[in-house]
Amino acid sequence: MLFHIFRDRGAVNALKILSSDGRVHSIDGIGLSEKSAETLFFHGLIQFEKNERKTSISLKGKQFIKLMDELKNLAEKDDKAKSIKLSFSLSKEERSFLLFASKLGFIAEKKKLFRQMKEQKILKSRPAFSKIIKSLEEISLIKSAGALVEITELGKQTIINELLEEFNLV
Predict the structure, then answer these.
(1) Residue 118 belongs to a domain
(2) Is residue 106 within 8 Å of 156, Cβ to Cβ?
(3) Does the pLDDT of residue 78 top 80, yes or no?
(4) Which of 25, 50, 81 is the last residue of a domain?
(5) Helix, strand, coil abundance in the chain, percent, nearest 5
(6) Is 86 inside any structural domain?
(7) Domain count across the chain
(8) How confident is the model at residue 92 (pLDDT cuts 50, 70, 90)?
(9) ∠ at Cα 22 (20, 27), nearest 5°?
(10) Long-range contacts, 27-31 (Cβ 8 Å, 24+)
(11) Taking a C-beta distance cutoff of 8 angstroms, is the pair 62, 23 a contact?
(12) 148 and 113: one domain?
């Protein structure tokens, strides 16, 4: 994907223009060829009306430009780019796992967690449950030891952040 986009300088420039004002533009007005517009549309970075030759940026396109700007700042190593913020999204199952474990006091028995998640129809099988434990452990949100699971400090902070975002309190 990146190769097809980055080798087309006109597409990158047009994407930057579209992201800066968020309006609908004629592809001719922003110097975008139809081929470049189709490439950006294929990758989900813009909406494109071929008959009317109009285009606007998509949410994925806005996120793409935001990340490219952050990478550019990092590469330039100016004073503004001394740190990078890393964020991730949890799946519904991972969020539910953390919430159920927190309701049980941040340390919970795996059997009890699995039973609750199965009753709520969030999970259907043990392997899916084990996969969630492994993925949360890999990103240091939980510690798993024997029959118990403990939510780490990072996991607790993640729960707080997820709830704040869910209720638009951020």
Answers:
(1) yes
(2) yes
(3) no
(4) 81
(5) 55, 10, 30
(6) no
(7) 2
(8) confident
(9) 90
(10) 27/53, 27/54, 27/55, 28/53, 30/55
(11) no
(12) yes
DSSP-derived pairing of the beta strands 107-109 and 148-151 = antiparallel
> How many other β-carbons are positioned within 10 Å of the β-carbon of residue 84?
9
pLDDT tens profile 12-45: 888 888 888 878 888 888 888 888 888 888 888 8
Q: Cβ neighbours of residue 156 under 8 Å, at least 6 residues apart? A: 102, 106
List the domain range (segments joined by +) for residue 67.
2-81
> Do 152 and 111 fall into the same domain?
yes
| CATH code for the domain in which residue 150 is found | 1.10.10.10
Residue 61 and residue 51: Cα distance in Å, rounded?
A: 21
Domain boundary among 55, 81, 107: 81
Q: Say whether pTM exceeds 0.85.
A: no
**What's the pLDDT tens digit per position in 109-120?**
999 999 989 998
